[in-house]
Amino acid sequence: MKSTSETAVRSSSTDRVLVLMAKAPRPGEVKTRLAPSLSPTAVTTFYCCLLEDTLALARSLSDVEVAIMCPESDVTELAQLAGNEASVVAQKGEGLAAGLTSVFAHFAQDHQREDHQRGAHQRRTIAFNSDSPHLPRAVLEDAFETLATHDVVVGPTHDGGYYLVGAKASHPTLFAGDGMGTSSALERLLSRAQGLQLSVSLAESFYDIDVADDLTRLAEELRLAPARAPRTAAWLKEWDRLCGGGTT
């Protein structure tokens, strides 16, 4: 299944594409580890804020095409949410590993053929969390620059996972096997990259939003700089007020 705006990404002249890994904001299907602290409705609303602010972050980069990769059942809903800000593409297969494989099969591999035909620069593709509006824009810019001299770039999270992974070509076995969403996800990815003899560079380590403590940390950060993620900052300000200064 293809969205109506998918063709726009394929015909773009830019050699950089940022693909957000997203799900439709439905209760019980997003940010499930926050459920003990927040109601399903609150979690869903919060995820919408994160996604919208992350889209704004992505669009703030210069000369970068923005897309969303998601399960096929979520295409229509996410296309409505994204509007004209990003194309929405259905992944092949189920789960995050299949989604990441789809990103590079769709964008990097297809554009590699097109670039070869017209002698253009090799396409640099980065898959990025859809819930990281607090990431400094410079980190994304640096990740794209890193791909000029490395096969793969990875942004580690503090819990053993990763918030972004980029490459210039499709490597179908890079995300094979289990371990996605676990504390060994990064280790497994680096091991597979080594087995494929790919040069890897690590971006700055960062935190993602999974549990209540992450909410508190993000609220404190955005309290000082709400313009970085205005929708998320406003939601967190209200959450902080309702729970008495960040306690749960």
Task: Spell out the blueprint of helices and strands.
Layout: H1 6-10, E1 16-21, H2 40-59, E2 65-70, H3 75-82, E3 87-90, H4 95-118, E4 124-129, H5 137-146, E5 152-156, E6 162-167, H6 185-195, E7 200-202, H7 212-224, H8 230-242
Helix pairs in contact: 2-8, 7-8
Question: Key terms for this structure?
Answer:
248 residues; alpha/beta; Spore Coat Polysaccharide Biosynthesis Protein SpsA, Chain A; 42% helix; 15% strand; globular; disordered N terminus
What is the structure about, briefly put?
The protein contains 8 helices and 7 strands.
Detailed description of the structure:
The N terminus is likely disordered. With 248 residues, this protein is of the alpha/beta class. 42% of the residues lie in helices and 15% in strands. The protein has a seven-stranded mixed β-sheet, with helices on both faces. The longest helix has 24 residues. It is built from eight helices and seven strands. 40% of the residues are buried. The chain has one domain: Spore Coat Polysaccharide Biosynthesis Protein SpsA, Chain A (Alpha-Beta Complex). Helix 7 crosses helix 8. Helix 2 links the parallel strand 1 and strand 2.
